Amino acid sequence: xxxxxxxxxxxxxxxxxxxxxxxxxxxxxxxxxxxxxxxxxxxxxxxxxxxxxxxxxxxxxxxxxxxxxxxxxxxxxxxxxxxxx
Length: 85
Known about the structure:
The chain is mainly alpha-helical. It has a domain at 36-85. The chain is built from three helices and no strands. The protein is flat, with a radius of gyration of 15 Å.
């Protein structure tokens, strides 16, 4: 991909203070701070087949538009939330 095309696909930095998601649900990604932590392992296991299907798609690394992450980028966001949440 040319550097000009890559520049067109750059997502603008998000400068919002996202710490509010520790107090109320996020309408963008569905995260809710009110989750029962004992339910998390089962929920993650239940999501594995869904993520496997999405990440196997040929367009999994393609951003649908400059302001939207690719499925792979969303998967990495979920992974980081689980690892560091």
